[in-house]
Amino acid sequence: MTFSLLLQGIVIGFSIAAPVGPIGVLCIRRTLAKGRIAGLISGLGAATADAVYGCIAGFGLTFISQFLVDQQNLLRLVGGAFLLYLGIKTFFSKDSEKKIENNDKGLSSAYLTTFFLTLTNPLTILSFVAIFAGMGIVNTTGNYASALMLVLGVFIGSMLWWSLLSGGASFFQKKIDAQGLTWINKISGVIITGFGVVALLGFLTAT
Questions:
Q1: Alpha-carbon separation of residue 168 from 114, 155, 185 (angstroms)
Q2: Which of 10, 90, 112, 175 is such that its CA lies 20 to 30 A from the CA of 148?
């Protein structure tokens, strides 16, 4: 039973992380610009946020999940505004960023930005609540060991996706010169900004 829950968690974590979105774009862009470690740390931030939401859904913390669902418009506003900032910053990033070494500050920033963006994405908590409830695996019996195994699976599944994505992107890193990186920055910036605009439009139409 415990192993089955772990496998279920891995499938859930992988399936929620896999759809292409702003986090995926960031992970690819950072891998191409600064190396696989930067991309992997970016994915780690998203996987940690997935695990947090997995805890909320898996441990049956309905009062927290309901609060987050009720505040999804506010989350859209905060997340959308941050995506706009991040998109514009990425668009105007300089070619020399490819030469910047990964340090504690840079890796911390990579982790925190994706962690924050994933937490402020209303679709994340809605996805976890819907999937966990639909599969009948929300914890209502106080069996915290089983819930913990499920959340661990979610984290592993999410990290599996980000490892594959950053690993695939790193294959092309050495093939990209400064001019190519400039175009990647601009294209990534436009895409991330677009996600921010969509999030803000969702906020405006819901208010």
A1: 19, 20, 18
A2: 112
